[in-house]
Specification:
Blueprint lengths: L7 H12 L13 H27 L4 H8 L7 H10 L5 E2 L2 E8 L14 E5 L6 H8 L5 E7 L2 E11 L2 E2 L2 H32 L22
Antiparallel strand pairs: 1-6, 2-3, 2-5, 4-5
Helix pairs in contact: 1-2, 2-6, 4-6
């Protein structure tokens, strides 16, 4: 591979290491027909690692992250792609009705509840269950509900304000969507680059081709 040989001992060593590690449960038993495909995947993994090392040395880059950045530099996401994604995934951006509450331990005896020190929390419809949620969503802002037992303690909740169900606007999530789409586009582009470099640089012996390549299948014989 570009002047670097990957030997059978290299393949054997990687397989042995895999069978001793956390990925072992994903490997078929050694010596079975399925294990031959596993060894083909191992060869592909070793070839990919060699290609990455070669590219890092060739470009003078420190690590894989820097290589991905260099190979996929300039990847852009159009406004149309962001808007299309938002439209097709509107359910991701729907927010159910919610209540902002302050939750404090219920006082014992004649003591009064102190709602001043605790922070607010937004409770969305469906996050809680039973009478506690029902009471919170039936209350008006300013109402105190409870006490309710949560865990081993009794609690009171004061409803601070109601938040109606809403659809988060595209403007609020545009940057998030754009970042996600860019990450996915860069991953696809880097995979394409790897495929092209494997085709250009790697010379894989018959019987060790990619498992998905039918030309590399070793014919089986039944007796």
């Amino acid at each position: 591979m570009a002047g670097h040989a990957i030997s059978l001992p290299d393949v054997d060593a990687r397989e042995s290491a895999l069978r001793l590690g956390p990925r072992a449960r994903h490997l078929p038993p050694a010596g079975t027909p399925a294990s031959e495909d596993a060894r083909r995947w191992i060869v592909r993994e070793l070839v990919t690692e060699a290609i990455v090392r070669h590219a890092l040395e060739e470009r003078g880059l420190p690590d894989l992250g820097a290589l991905v950045e260099a190979v996929t530099e300039g990847v852009a996401v159009s406004d149309a792609a962001v808007e299309d994604y938002y439209g097709r995934n509107a359910d991701r951006y729907r927010r159910p009705e919610a209540r902002v509450v302050r939750l404090v331990p219920a006082p014992t005896g004649r003591g009064a509840a102190d709602f001043g020190a605790d922070t607010e929390a937004e409770v969305r419809r469906g996050e809680l269950a039973g009478p506690f949620e029902d009471a919170i969503f039936a209350a008006a802002p300013g109402d105190i509900v409870g006490p309710f037992t949560i865990g081993a303690r009794r609690w009171l909740a004061r409803v601070e304000r109601a938040v109606p169900a809403r659809l988060v606007s595209l403007a609020d999530v545009r940057a998030e969507i754009e970042a996600d789409l860019r990450t996915a586009a860069r991953a696809r582009l880097f995979d394409q680059w790897l495929d092209a470099r494997r085709a250009e640089l790697a010379r894989v012996e018959a019987g060790f081709e990619h498992p998905g390549d039918p030309s590399g299948r070793v014919p089986s014989h039944r007796h």
